[in-house]
Amino acid sequence: MSHRRPLSGNDVFKALRTEHTIVMAVNVRMTRGITRGIMRSAKDNDAPVIFEIARSESDLSGGYTGMTPKDYYDEVVKAAHEADHDIFVVHADHISIKKGDAEDLDGTKKLIAAQIEAGFTSYAIDASHLFDFKGRDLREELKDNIRCTSEIAHFIKDRMGNRTYGLEVEVGEIGKTDATGRVLTRPEEAVAFLSALSDNGVHPDLLAIANGSAHGNTFDDQGKIIPQVSIDIPQTKAVARAIKEAGFPVAIAQHGITGTPRETINLHFPKGDILKGNVGTHWQNIFYDVIKVYEPDLYDEMWKWTLSTYGPKNPGKPEEMVFGKNCKNAFKPFKGRMAKLGKDTELAMEAMAYAESNLYLKAFSAQGAASKVRSYMESR
Ligand SMILES: [Zn+2]
Fold first, then answer.
1. Ligand 1 mean position to 196 CA, how many Å?
2. From ligand 1's centre to the CA of 52, what distance in Å?
3. Contacts of 335 (CB under 8 A, 6+ apart)
4. For residues 280-301, b (16+ Cβ closer than 10 Å) or e, as one string?
5. CA–CA gap between residue 69 and residue 53 (Å, rounded)
6. What is the phi/psi pair of residue 178, to 5°?
7. What is the average per-residue pLDDT within 17-22?
8. Higher pLDDT residue, 230 or 39?
9. Ligand 1 midpoint to CA 139 (Å)
């Protein structure tokens, strides 16, 4: 068993740019068995896999999972070593910039410096919240997003020196709604954004767009989890086509896949146009499903903590929904307990994560894609 290091995201995305495949990106929150199960599944399917973590989940003070970037990196590399898997990336998901002032950008750079120091090999700058509704044209509407994304992209480039890395940028806030429903990114908006970045010397691999998905589980009025069928596939294809026609070698990063039926992904997603598919909450659902049976006392305590903390802020909402939307915040206060899960609990999580990962990798047409990355890297 050799020691494993993550690949540059840029190498993986470049290797697969013309392939009919989606690279699975997973957010795993403090759950060793799940990390292992996914890594083993990637190995057995000869698939690349991206382990990612967002700023809200992991920052210098731990985020809502209680993990620093180094904690996360170390867990992933350990799992890769144990599974003897070589084609994986450690990606900083949603490096969110919400205000865009000097203080915000300064804090963002401190986080990125720590992610680079830890060994992350891919970065997603998300300044999509910065949108000027009073702008006279697209460039004006996107001005702050363009400014912040460019400044942070140059910071990453300078800090990475001669190492390559993956770069994802975002236009259109994911899951945002207005009076007419989910707000979708228009093709011309994607092109205007990429053109402006290109003028500033910023050349991303991936663009995240708003195309009808939302983060987390989807609930009905009673608070029951239901499938998510809101991703607008024709709109996604239209955006991908416009980007290609404008001459940018940039693919789409699909966020918020949890809940989308695998058969829909398998048969209808434009694989290749969508090159990176983010699955986050699904793994958290497995965690809770397993402890519900294997560690009912812990589940009960996490349930009560979540309800007593978030119930009063959500009057009249079904308990299932309040729990489902906020149980992610229970990871940090229960961090100590989660490090001491029973061996059989971890094994059950690993087995479930392995099987579920197999289904995603099949639906993403990712089997065998790791070999394509290997041959690309040998041929350079
Ligand atoms: Zn996302």
1. 23
2. 10
3. 30, 65, 66
4. bbbbbbbbeebbeebbeebbee
5. 8
6. -130, -165
7. 96
8. 39
9. 24
Give Dmax over CA atoms of the chain in angstroms.
60
User: What's the mean pLDDT in 147-173?
Assistant: 97
Query: Rounded to 5 degrees, what are φ and ψ at 170?
Result: -135, 135
Q: What's the 278 CA to ligand 1 centre distance in angstroms?
A: 7
- Cβ proximity of 187 and 236 under 8 Å: no
- At residue 309, does pLDDT exceed 80? yes
Q: For tokens 């086509």, name the residue.
A: 241
Amino acid at 163: R
Q: How far is the CA of 316 from the centre of ligand 1 (A)?
A: 28
Q: Considering only CA atoms, which of 1, 113, 47, 4 is closest in space to residue 279?
A: 47
The mean pLDDT of the chain is: 95
**How far, in Å, from the CA of 315 to the mean position of ligand 1?**
27
- Is pLDDT of 174 > 70? yes
Judged by phi (left if over 0) then psi (alpha if -120 to 50, else beta), residue 185 lies in beta
How far does CA 270 lie from the centroid of its chain? 18
The rounded distance, in Å, linking the Cα atoms of 313 and 66 is 23
Residue 30 has pLDDT above 80, yes or no: no
Angle between helices 69-83 and 32-44 (to 10 degrees): 40
Of the two residues 2 and 280, the one the predictor is more confident about is: 280
CA 208–ligand 1 middle distance (angstroms): 8
Separation CA 75–CA 30 (nearest Å): 9
Taking the whole predicted model, whether its pTM rises above 0.85 is answered as: yes
- Give the pLDDT score at 29: 83
16 Cβ contact list (under 8 Å, min separation 6):
23, 48, 272, 275, 369, 372, 373
Task: Please write the tens of the pLDDT for every residue from 114-131.
Answer: 999 999 999 999 999 999
The answer to whether 138 and 196 have CB atoms below 8 angstroms apart is no
pLDDT above 80 (res 3): no
